[in-house]
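Deviation from plan, reported transparently: zinc ion complex.
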Amino acid sequence: MEFRTATVVAKRLRQLGFELHLGRSVLKPEARVGLPPDVQLAEAYDSARRGGADPDLLRAFEFGFTAVVGVLHGTAPGPTTAIRFDLDALPIPEDATDAHAPYRGGYASVHAGCMHACGHDAHVAIGLGLARVLSEIRDALKGTVRLVFQPAEEGGRGAKAMVEAGAVDGVDHLIAIHIGMGLASGHLAPRTVGFLASAKFDVDFVGDMAHAGARPESGANALLAAAQAALGLHALPRHHAGRTRVNVGALQAGAGRNVIADKAKLVGELRGDDDAIVDYLIARARAVVDGAAIAHGVAATLQLVGRTTVADSDAVLAQSIVDAVQGVPGLSADAHPYPAYGSEDATYLMQRVQANGGDAVYCVVGSDLAADHHTPRFDIDETVLEPAIGALAKAVLALGASGPRLLPTS
Ligand SMILES: [Zn+2]
Ligand SMILES: [Zn+2]
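Because the crystal trials were delayed, the predicted structure below was used instead.
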């Protein structure tokens, strides 16, 4: 639903002389999962149009194809360096008290129930700042820069469809960035490791309503099936080969106090140290859901709505970034492995680039945070934005100058 954001990004990149690849050309339709309902997409599209989004650019994103890739060719041959920025926000109501600086300062979210609680707005700001700097120093630039603006990172729904559209094919070096993640302001950690693979799923239970006092036996209780499934999912046998996580994050069910519930919806996620462990958890989760449905005589449908995989940052590329950013004021960097505790679908982009013979890193831009990621008072330290732009510009220049392409031109 990042219609307006994608339009702002595309417009700015075009002004700066970047070649644009928008929508379906960088986001494969059949590879998308977990889309919002059509009516919600249409509302968000209209809201962007009413909000003054450039109508010509906006059209490329209709039906949720909110991906933008900007390409800038240097003045001499060299490798292709891609940088990934994600665009999306979270369904969290932003804190509306004076304790929250964005509210106090008048720049909190204007979309009710929706906020940038993970810092992806900072990523977009860094991406557009970098685009400006690169356009200014184009004469010194060797090789090609590809700025990849990805939708739907939260929930693991955007990156895979970009990979399948070829958005990172032909990339020699990929840098995915993220702000915060426990790293203090003034530091850069370009060698993040340890993301968990994950699968996000929704389950719909459908039973039959009945009068809870008069004829409870004639109903089929979707609420009880969902509740039993929630407990069963959290009790899934774990796996010897690595870490696992299970979470049922929301459960809605029922119609009224004296009615046998005919509907329930459960949303959850499964995580593990690799894809095989996640596949194992998915298979067991299906069995638990089916078992609970049979026990209560209801129908259940489990749908996978997001997926992330695993990828580790390449040490050599991380070291090249560390070397390149020496001397950026207000920034220190090192190439020690930096542990991640979550999941990221940038891992699909990294995996593709690495499988093609290129290298990739996930680079954390340190920022002191007012509150944790994914909470209503999340807020970044904005003084880190400018050094991050400087660091990425230096890294792009150095990688461009570092030698011939690793990969054949696609
Ligand atoms: Zn994030
Ligand atoms: Zn997040």
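The chain has a mean pLDDT of 96. We consider this an acceptable substitute for the interim report.
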